Amino acid sequence: MRHDGERERGSASVEQAGLAALVALLLLAAIAAVFAGAIGRRIACAPRLPDACRHHPLVPAYGWPLARLTRALAPAPAAKPGPSGLPLVPVDFRRCRQESCAVAAGAHLTASGRRTTAFTQLLDRRDSLGWVEIDYWLFRPGLGWEKEVRLADQSQVDAASDVRVLLRDDPALVPLETLPGRNHYDFPPGERPPWQWNVHSRYPGWSS
Fold this sequence. Notes:
Strand order of the largest sheet: 5-4-3-6
Oligomer: single chain
């Protein structure tokens, strides 16, 4: 009987050890998943500015009031005939440099599924001249750059206070002031952006 009891206790000890090992493995897997998610978010956010994973890039670039104004005054995407005659909409030059990926296929998308995009530049001259200038730079492959300008005074800034600034909105808006490496992209002579080397860097500011 003593021999059988020792064998039963030995068997129970092995089972307990196996259970403990299983629990430890499950805990390690859970911890690894948490760290992997955190690292993934870090990698996704690394090229951006602080809080870019929680807020639209306009917000750290210009502050909430002017980010809302920039969204409110954004030009509606419009197609223009390209060199081949195809209707082209403004796109993100970092991801699309050929006509084929800029062909209009609806209000906000291209035939290749890309979103329409406008790059922004903001000059706040309310203290001196009483208005804000927002430049929207539109790129169409083969056509180069087009600039649309909006001027707004403080009353328009206030009127935009309820505008939502969402990453999913169209057109996508990209502030040039915080665009990494913006001056070092290569363009053909006819497509070189007029803003290149003329946009001042801007560190995120929440008080403007």
